[in-house]
Amino acid sequence: MDKHVLVINASPRAEGNTEALCDALIAGAKKAGHRTAKINVRTMDIKPCLGCYQCLAGKGTPCIQKDDMKEIYTALDQADTVVFASPLYWWQVNAQMKTVIDRLFAVAAANNMQMPQKEAALLIAAEDAREENFAQIVPYYQTCLVKNLNWIDRGMVLAGGVNMPGDVQKTPYLKQAEDLGASL
Ligand SMILES: Cc1cc2nc3c(=O)[nH]c(=O)nc-3n(C[C@H](O)[C@H](O)[C@H](O)COP(=O)(O)O)c2cc1C
To answer: What keywords were assigned to this record (predicted)?
Structure first.
């Protein structure tokens, strides 16, 4: 069955390592017959969560803030699989991705704190290739984006050892991302 695969690219660097991973995953997903969409957070105006809990009170659709998060809410609604793609910043997803994740609270709130079930995958670009570099991002993904959302993990690509744009081209990680896309 073909799926709708939504890739959320939080890298501020156009055509950087994270975006190359996204494009490789999308190429694999397309080959497998899936429909794909890529959202580049860097082009969007997405404000941080206000913590106003208006979403819990049923106000907003699903959030009272009127900004480009609306586009992500619509895309999310249509997606079977959501790919979270971020450069590693200070051992975590970057602030752009964290802002998007915070704003997902409103979707859960609009659904009695039960996120609509989806599949998840993670793409990370990072300078440091050591396994310990990913010791925080992996449990964060598994806890917050898989267990907490009650989503199904479809895999991760942790592209360590890439720093300058284009570095990822010389690594096996693009193939890994393409294979992950094809396996969805
Ligand atoms: C603010 C900042 C924080 C970073 N923190 C880390 C880090 O904790 N670990 C790491 O391995 N690389 C870190 N990096 C390097 C980036 O993850 C790396 O350059 C990555 O390839 C960037 O992806 P992009 O090409 O999509 O921008 C950091 C870079 C920046 C700008």
So the answer is: Flavoprotein, FMN
* Whether the bond into 62 is cis, omega within 30 of 0: yes
Residue 171 and residue 86: Cα distance in Å, rounded? 17
pLDDT at residue 106, as a whole number: 97
All domains of the chain, ordered by start, with CATH? 4-136+143-183 (3.40.50.360)
Q: Which amino acid is at 55?
A: C
Distance in Å, CA 96 to ligand 1 centroid? 13
C-alpha 112 to ligand 1 mean position (Å): 36
86 lines ligand 1 (CB under 6 A): no
Decide if pLDDT at 157 tops 90: yes
- 140-156 per-position pLDDT tens digit: 999 999 999 999 999 99
Q: How far, in Å, CA of 17 to CA of 104, rounded?
A: 25
